[in-house]
Amino acid sequence: MNTILLLVAVVFCVLLAATIFLLLKKTSGSRSIFKAQQEAKTILDKAAESAESVKREASIVAKEKYLNLKTEFENQTRERREKINEMERRIVNKEENLERRMANLERRERDFSNKETQLYTKEQDLVNKEKEVEEIIAKELKELERVAGMTQDDAKRELRKKIEDEAKLEAIQIIRKIEEETREKSQAIAKDLISQAIQRSAAEHVVETTVSVVDLPSDDMKGRIIGREGRNIRALELATGVDIIVDDTPEAVILSSFDPIRREMARLAIEKLVLDGRIHPARIEDVVNTVKIELEESIKQEGETAILELRIQDMHPELIRLLGKLKYRTSYGQNVLQHSKEVAFLSALMARELDLNTTVALRAGLLHDIGKAVDKDVEGTHTELSVELTRKYGEKEAVVLAIASHHRDVDFPSIEAVLVQSADTLSAARPGARRELLETYIKRLKKLEDIATGFDGVAKAYALQAGREIRIIVESQKVNDEKAAFVAKEIARKIKDEMDYPGQIKVTVIREMRAVEYAR
Predict the structure, then answer these.
(1) Residue 302: partners with Cβ closer than 8 Å, 6 or more residues away
(2) Which of 57, 78, 313, 433 has a 20 to 30 Å separation from 448 between CA atoms?
(3) Looking at the predicted structure, is the pLDDT value of residue 389 above 70?
(4) Does some domain include residue 402?
């Protein structure tokens, strides 16, 4: 490429010199031909020199490039040769490694084949020996069954029964030990705590009865209450929803109704009519309407008095009104509002002694029977209704859950819930707090005794202390000392599952061994 450029430059210079020469020849004439020839020769010499210089430079550049390219090619070739040599060495090493591995694998395969043969031989020997052992065991079992007089299944059942009995006895011993240790540590603390709470409670210890008799100033007032052809008494019964009984009781009429609020409304209305002296259907209607308003206000005031007495704040007005209605509800003769306040007071005292949440215990104790204020109008148990009402009117979930568990319908969610249940039991079970119908009382005692006598080994059972304790006499031949504790625990569990009762029932199992002989 450089040579071609050099030739082109030389040709261009020659043509340029020729052109100049011809021009000089034409313009200068013959006299200047020589001068022009000299100048042309000079130009040609300079052109030749320039061309030679360019040629030399081009040759030098070409040689340098050639040397650079040659050096680069040789370097690349050397690197590739080295890489190829390295790859060849690696391939050779890999082939050698593969050959060694193949040799090892062949050796291992031969070893495995030998071991497999040996294992197969041993397996056959073990199978034969196992068959021999099974035959020997079968013969021994038949011999044992013949000697023992029972089959293998019978022996298994006997062994299983023996193991179960031993496990039960061991469990009973552990349970008794734990119970004794727990009782020793906790009984003193519990007695002290409960006694302090009861001592600080100023509750009445008499049964409260609902008064259904209205005193009159004279027997003449009975005729005015009845009215002409009985119109006054019919108007009273229609307005109040209460049956009014006018009998031979001197200076009194009897009010009969299952609704204590209606009965109280009728009592107040009759007292107002007797004081006013004007008794006729229109006046009766006005008085009853007035008494309704006053009674509703009185119910609200009773609820407010209860929460002020217990220093409770931020309670929904509807819950306060329902608390007031509890004043006119009784449970086995015990006033429900007084019972609720007593439970709240006891729960809070015990919670304070145990450094627990006093607010939760107090509110749950007061509201645990709030459902009894509406249980005649709505379906469901009073516990379910109490839970629904407290949750509806914004009580905390801890209070709601404590109320839900106060009859053990659900597991206790907290220690405060246990205290509410204990306080409820204390308030209901204390002497004179509640009364019970004779028929219900007898049925409860009979069921208690029937549960106890239903267990194997029980000879007799006696309910004592109005059903607070049951004493069970077991047969000493069937029940040993350890099993007696197990029987007591099982009877207590069954009583808990099948019966409703206030407080607790003590189960005492008595096992007595008597040896009797006669001297003749």
Answers:
(1) 323, 324, 327, 337
(2) 433
(3) yes
(4) yes
Which residue do the tokens 């625990």 mark? 489
**CB contact set of 58 (below 8 Å; sequence gap of 6+):** 2, 3, 5, 6
- Using an 8 Å Cβ cutoff, are 21 and 40 in contact? yes
In a domain, 358, yes or no: yes
Whether the per-residue pLDDT at 216 is higher than 50: the answer is: yes
Same domain, 104 and 157: no
Asked if 166 and 300 sit in the same domain, the reply is no
Q: DSSP letters of 391-403?
A: HHTT--HHHHHHH
Number of other residues whose CB lies within 10 A of the CB of residue 99: 10
From residue 86, how far is each of 78, 79, 91, 97 by CA, in Å?
Answer: 12, 10, 9, 16
Considering the domain architecture, whether residues 94 and 51 belong to the same structural domain is answered as yes
To 10 degrees, what angle do helices 231-240 and 260-276 make?
140
Please tell me the distance from the alpha carbon of residue 455 to that of residue 490, in angstroms, as a whole number.
Answer: 9
- Asked whether residue 106 falls in the same domain as residue 131, the answer is yes
In DSSP notation, 451-489 reads HHHTSTTEEEEEEEGGGTEEEEEE-TTT--HHHHHHHHH
User: Does 11 share its domain with 137?
Assistant: yes
Q: How much is the pLDDT for 208?
A: 38
- Residue-wise pLDDT for 179-207, tens only, equals 677 766 666 666 666 555 554 444 443 33
Q: Which residues share a beta bridge with 509? A: 472
C-alpha pair distances (Å), 230 with each of 226, 301, 465? 5, 36, 51
Beta-bridge partners for 99: none
Q: Same domain, yes or no, for 158 and 250? A: no
User: CA 85 to CA 78: how far, in whole Å?
Assistant: 10
Residue 15 has pLDDT above 80, yes or no: no
| Residue type for position 67 | L
Model pTM above 0.85: no
Least confident segment among 20-24, 94-98, 277-281: 20-24
Asked if 25 and 124 sit in the same domain, the reply is: yes
In a domain, 448, yes or no: yes
Looking at the structure, do residues 469 and 504 belong to the same domain, yes or no?
yes
**Domain of 430?**
332-435
Instruction: Give the residues across from 255 on adjacent strands.
Output: 244
User: Other C-beta atoms within 10 Å of 483: how many?
Assistant: 18
Q: Which residues pair with 458 in a beta bridge?
A: 474
